[in-house]
Amino acid sequence: MNEADILLVYKSLRLPILVIAISYITYYVYKKRTKDEMEKPKYRMLEED
Hints:
- This protein has a domain at 15-48.
- The chain is built from two helices and no strands.
- By secondary structure, it is an all-alpha fold.
- The chain starts with a helix and ends with a helix.
């Protein structure tokens, strides 16, 4: 493989990998169970004030 082939593979895969990564992060953060776990510290901090 020469440099042009490697560059072509890189450019063709970077956008799909980015979309998959952002989709997974969004799914993980907005799942019901995970969202409840992420919100617990906020409510605990509010109760302590």
